[in-house]
Amino acid sequence: MNYFTHAIRYLDRPYFAAGVCVPDWLSVVDRKARVRGRRIAEELPTLSGDEYEIAVGIQKHLDDDRWFHGTEAFYDVSGQIARSFRDDLPEDDSWRCGFLGHIVMELLLDSALIEDQPERLEQYYDVLREVDLQKVQGVVSSLATKEVTELARLIELFTKERFFEDYLGNEGLLFRLNQVMKRIKLEPLPESTLRTLEFGRSVVRANVHELLPANHFPERDVLPNKI
């Protein structure tokens, strides 16, 4: 799951919604800084109010990733997209295509939710603008494996950049993907992969209810209809 899919159910709880985004933000701002479930459990009794909401939001992200990555649909859909990338990139190594199958599936899941309910995207950004970013950074620093000093700045840029809107079109999605590829020092993707992005878009939308099953994701009103 990616930022928006993690947060869409909690837009009435600003600090919780920020908390569920924290692990994804950390992967951008400082990949060496991790927040572990055991550390959160140790600190929760000492927290209250907004700080508690941030911490339990982070824990929710970790819990969601655990079940999400274990679903049959996750393996099936990400595998289909990975195989399509291998057709587009026949000389590429299988690791990069597997990575792309995973990340593209999650970005396209965000896109499917946004496409159906764009007003929730506006609400998402409004909610993040409500939170005290220094408070978020302080809580994360107290829980993470190392202090983070640029998280507040990153969240501010995140709300201004609004890159989720680019996920709605294949060209915009390719542009954002290549930003990720550059950040992690992998070769950029050629325009030929637009075919796979379109294929992946249809596969994700057709399987959105299986990717977000009711026993783990009961808020069915936020999900788009199947094709």
What is this entry, summarized?
The chain has 227 residues and is mainly α. The protein has helices spanning 3-7, 14-29, 37-43, 49-68, 72-88, 94-116, 118-130, 133-143, 151-161, 170-183, 194-206, 208-211.
Structural description of this entry:
It is a single chain. The mean pLDDT is 94. Helix 4 packs across helix 8 (133-143), helix 5 packs antiparallel against helix 11 and helix 8 crosses helix 9. The chain has 227 residues and is mainly α. The chain has helices spanning 3-7, 14-29, 37-43, 49-68, 72-88, 94-116, 118-130, 133-143, 151-161, 170-183, 194-206, 208-211. The protein has one domain (3-222).
Topology:
Layout (H helix, E strand, L loop, with lengths): L2 H5 L6 H16 L7 H7 L5 H20 L3 H17 L5 H23 L1 H13 L2 H11 L7 H11 L8 H14 L10 H13 L1 H4 L16
Structural class: mainly alpha
Shape estimate: globular
Domain count: 1
Kindly provide the radius of gyration, computed on alpha-carbon positions and rounded to a whole number of angstroms: 17 Å
* Count of alpha/pi helices: 12
Distance between the termini: 21 Å
Largest sheet entry: none
Any low-confidence stretches, pLDDT <50, length ≥5? none
User: Which band does the percent of strand residues land in?
Assistant: under 5%
Find the count of extended strands (DSSP E, 2+ residues).
Answer: 0
Mean pLDDT across the residues is: 94
Listing every helix as H and every strand as E from the N terminus to the C terminus, the arrangement reads HHHHHHHHHHHH
What's the helical proportion of residues?
55-70%
